[in-house]
Specification:
eight-stranded parallel barrel; 42% helix
Length: 380
């Protein structure tokens, strides 16, 4: 298959797989899709990123892949002081800290168990650290550089253009698309409300054709990737019938054999229905779609102090989930109720764990069947 996107990144099948797990990224690219490594967690440093990308280079058989970092547009300020997790945690109000601790205690979760959340580390990628992340990425054969939260910083666009690497950004509206194009991005990821994590209110079925039509009216050939709830090849075919050049996917890879998601979380994801997700600020402080759990339910109830803004709520959530996972490992079944994960509504269509290669193959076969049906209708 050839279109503007496949030619831009050098892939045959325009299935993009976003994952925080390097094993998933390499496996998808080897199988004929386009893996994108999400270097978007607070623990990722430039040195660690180099280790991860070196590993992907050694295991993707020379197939193309991409990189996604997160520089929130409203925090992209070089004058902002570097912060550490402990310094940020010290700013969390005592009432919120007590509310979280009492919630964990009600589920039999020990608060004294050491976790990675106890480590003190720099969390500011804004902007010097982010620029170093870009430099590390451009030392590798990255075929697409994406910013996950708003307009990419100008240095990212400039450095990527100088290196001949296309840039992309996620959008949730036609207005977002206009701003990204003016900034100089090369690929738009139109993410509907069905999507995992941070998303808007417009559905994928409406957002994709709206953005595509506007681009056509502007005479632009910038490719649009459809995102939000797409976990099958027939959904991918439907999105491309609306004008998308491919699909950006994430949730479907959480349950794969290569995924590093905790086994108890995988079990909850495989049992989940499409209506078992919720848009809530309880996970990160920004509205994000996630699996329903006792954690997000408690923050939405009367009597809750209410979620804190990012990054403070994220720090509370990260600690709580790590403690819950360790408690589950220790045999505490009640701790499972706390576990959640950023996941889209499409998870209801994912009912069994498979290898990433098998998932790519299913996408390809399902896509071909859907296109064949549409062709048959056209010829009838």
């Amino acid at each position: 298959m050839q279109n503007r996107f496949t030619l831009l990144v050098g892939v045959d099948f325009p299935l993009v797989a976003f994952s925080h797990c390097r094993d998933v990224v390499a496996a998808v690219s080897r199988a004929g899709g386009f893996g994108v490594f999400g270097a978007t967690n607070g623990k990722m440093t430039p040195d660690q990123l180099k280790i991860e990308l070196d590993w992907i280079d050694a295991h993707c058989d020379g197939r193309p892949y991409g990189l996604d970092i997160a520089v929130p547009e409203n925090m992209a300020d070089r004058s902002a002081p570097d912060m550490t997790t402990h310094a940020l945690e010290a700013q969390i109000p005592e009432g919120h800290r007590r509310f979280a601790d009492e919630l964990l205690a009600r589920h039999g979760i020990s608060l004294d168990t050491p976790t990675d959340a106890d480590e003190d580390r720099e969390v500011s990628h804004f902007l010097d650290t982010a620029e170093r992340m870009v430099d590390v990425g451009l030392q590798h054969p990255i075929r697409l550089f994406v910013n996950a939260l708003g307009k990419p910083p100008q240095f990212m666009i400039d450095k990527c253009k100088a290196a001949g690497v296309p840039t992309g950004a996620l959008i949730g509206s036609k207005d977002h698309a206009k701003r990204q194009i003016e900034a100089g991005v090369d690929v738009l990821v139109a993410q509907g409300t069905e999507a995992a994590a941070h998303c808007g209110e417009v559905s994928t079925m409406v957002l994709v054709p709206e953005v595509v039509r506007w681009l056509e009216e502007m005479g632009s050939d910038i490719p649009v990737l459809a995102a939000g709830g797409i976990v099958t090849g027939r959904q991918m075919a439907a999105a491309m019938a609306m004008g998308a050049a491919g699909a950006w996917t994430g949730s479907v890879w959480l349950t794969t054999a290569e995924s590093e998601v905790h086994p108890a979380v995988k079990e909850k994801l495989l049992a989940a229905r499409s209506r078992d997700t919720i848009r809530s600020r309880a996970m990160t402080g920004k509205t994000a779609r996630q699996l329903k759990s006792a954690w997000n339910a408690a923050w939405e109830e009367p009597g809750s102090p209410g979620p804190l803004p990012m990054p403070f709520q994220h720090l509370l959530t990260n600690r709580a989930l790590l403690l819950a996972e360790k408690s589950v490992d220790g045999g505490n079944e009640a701790a499972r109720d706390i576990l959640t994960e950023g996941v889209g509504q499409g998870i209801g269509l994912v009912t069994s764990a498979k290898s990433a290669r098998a998932v790519v193959q299913e996408y390809m076969e399902d896509f071909a069947d859907a296109v064949g049906r549409m062709r048959g209708w056209a010829e009838a």
